[in-house]
Design brief:
The chain has 17 helices and 22 strands. By secondary structure, it is an alpha/beta fold. Among the domains are: 20-74 and 90-266, Nucleotidyltransferase, domain 5; 276-328 and 424-512, 2-Layer Sandwich (Nucleotidyltransferase, domain 5), CATH 3.30.420. It is globular, with a radius of gyration of 23 Å. Keywords: Carbohydrate metabolism, Kinase, Transferase, Xylose metabolism. Belongs to the FGGY kinase family.
């Protein structure tokens, strides 16, 4: 044990470790990994979005404070475990919530507060661009936010000189480079898989539209769209190094030195694919957090455009169908908090993890269809089901069976409800899936959410030891891959080869196949869920 600890100490001091930072919806997490890609330490900082002027946002001050807090927590954890504080790393990677809109002027001044993926105010822009491109442009995408500002004649629209995602922004602050990983870029504007860059035909179509608007005296960006977007980079590419200003942004103490290489910044979808080794065709993953989404790597393009499916890419640029649901595990967390308060009122000292564990265990004893209960986890709008706003709901009929087991099974089913509707569309396209890998905190409790997800999508679900590590670990692996390419440019592996041969070669997976009784029960629940959407819609209109 002492020799192992000494070896880790030496690796930390020599910078033979890799740092990953992911800015999630409720948590900013930093993960430190060793040469074997195993987690060594972590740090986190909790934060929440704000709903201001009817927009979901985070302030840039909160971004900076959160980065410093998460990094400091990581350093504290390293010191407590190994007796040394890191002053350098072999590489750094940054990821964050995909999509959204951070727009800047020619003087690099933020023009409007950050508009996150959670906003569903871009319906008109989404519809117009989808028709213009013949390609589904979801409400969340950065180009939809820009074009909605154009349609609404917002004063800032002609002043936009650069717009990016949250990961792209943080990377810019750390390195001075306005670049973005191809996976994250695919949530800004459509990517051409053949070139690995933005689709040239669609860029030209948008510029023509902007020219027509300007000729008619209407608002439009002043420059060609390509000039406003960040440069697209694939996994392993040179994305710059940490500057002195970037080092101070992360570490106010001054201990962290500049010059550390960074990998291209990625979105949480891309890091989820890496964290679950699902970057090859016929593989996919489900990431469950504040939002929940499935990524399925395609063998060929889809035959039709579907509003339920986003066409994005892996961090290496391969085509992916994405089913993105705005609402994930937050409502489950709220109910766990309520039950935790009740336990505390009875004098229990149970931790939050204990409460979650007990509630999830109870769900296993519920009736296969949830006993006739119905729940919606909609804290915000849900584009797949056509709702601009959300209202969390729980309902039952007089003949339903209300029990803790049925209640909790229904709540877990509800977290997967919208996702399974989107996956049904994908199945209708004939897409084959060998296995679905799952990660995120929802899967920390073994054998519960994994089992129910298998029933919801009708496919085996695999969970590995890194399921709870999530995107911070995934982007740390991407940073390690960048270092691999840098050190052996002529003999480097592809991302898929690197993950399979270097990261997951000895990984142990727990694979759960769909249980027929669960599948039948979930199907009955989903029928009830679809019928209940009318109730959810009425709630948004009247509450």
């Amino acid at each position: 044990m002492d020799s192992t600890r000494t070896a880790v100490q030496e690796a930390i001091a020599a910078g033979r470790t890799t740092l990953g930072i992911e800015l999630g919806s409720t948590n900013i997490k930093a993960s430190l990994i060793g040469a074997d890609h195993a987690p060594l330490a972590s740090g986190s900082h909790g934060w929440e979005n704000q709903f201001e002027d009817r927009m979901w946002t985070y302030s840039l001050d909160a971004v900076e404070a959160g980065l410093r807090s998460a990094f400091a927590a990581l350093c504290d954890d390293v010191e407590s475990r190994y007796g040394v504080r890191p002053a350098t790393f072999g590489a750094i990677g940054v990821s964050a919530m995909m999509h959204g809109y951070l727009a800047f002027s020619a003087n690099d001044e933020l023009l409007v507060p950050f508009r996150t993926w959670r906003n569903t105010t871009t319906g008109a822009a989404s519809a117009e661009l989808t028709e213009l491109f013949g390609y589904n442009i979801p409400l969340r995408w950065s180009i939809a936010h820009l074009h909605q500002a154009v349609l609404d004649a917002e004063a800032h629209a002609p002043e936009v000189a650069f717009f990016t995602t949250l990961a792209g922004y943080v990377h810019w602050r750390l390195t001075g480079r306005k670049v973005i990983g191809v996976g994250d870029a695919s949530g800004m504007f459509p990517i051409d898989p053949a070139t690995g860059g933005y689709d040239a035909g669609m860029l030209a179509a948008y510029d023509s539209l902007a020219d027509r608007r300007r000729s008619a005296g209407e608002a439009a960006p002043a420059a060609p769209l390509a000039d406003l977007l960040p440069e697209v980079l694939s996994a392993g590419a040179d994305a710059g190094v940490l500057t002195e200003d970037g080092a101070r942004l992360l570490d106010a103490s001054g201990a962290l030195g500049p010059g550390i290489p960074l990998c291209p910044p990625e979105g949480d979808a891309g890091t989820g694919m890496v964290a679950t080794n699902s970057v090859a065709p016929r593989t996919g993953n489900v990431s469950a957090g504040t939002s929940i989404f499935a990524m399925v790597v395609l063998e060929q393009p889809l035959a039709a455009v579907h509003h339920e499916l986003d066409m994005v890419t892996t961090p290496a640029g391969d085509l992916v169908a994405m089913v993105h649901c705005n609402n994930g595990a937050s409502e489950l967390g709220a109910w766990a908090g309520l039950f935790g308060e009740f336990a505390a009122a009875l004098g229990s000292t149970a931790s939050r993890d204990d409460v979650f564990g007990a509630l999830f265990a109870a769900a296993l004893d519920g009736e296969a269809d949830g006993g006739g209960l119905l729940a919606f986890n909609y804290l915000s709008g849900e584009p797949i089901t056509g709702l601009d706003e959300g209202r969390p709901l729980f309902a039952r009929t007089p003949d339903s069976t209300l029990s803790l087991a049925n209640f909790m099974r229904t709540q877990v089913y509800a977290a997967f409800g919208t996702l399974s509707l989107g996956m049904r569309v994908l199945a209708g396209e004939g897409v084959k899936l060998d296995a679905m890998f799952a990660h995120g905190g929802l899967f920390k409790t073994a054998g519960v959410a994994q089992r129910f997800l298998a029933a919801a999508i009708g496919a085996p679900v695999a969970v590995g030891a890194t399921a709870g590590e999530g995107g911070a670990w995934g982007v740390a692996v991407l940073a390690a891959y960048r270092r691999h390419v840098f050190e052996a440019p002529d003999a480097s592996l592809s991302l898929g080869e690197y993950l399979a041969g270097r990261v997951f070669a000895d990984a142990e997976l727990d694979v759960v196949a769909p249980d027929p009784a669960d599948e039948a029960g979930y199907a009955a629940f989903l029928t009830r869920y679809e019928a209940g959407l009318a109730v959810e819609r009425a709630a948004t209109e009247n509450l």
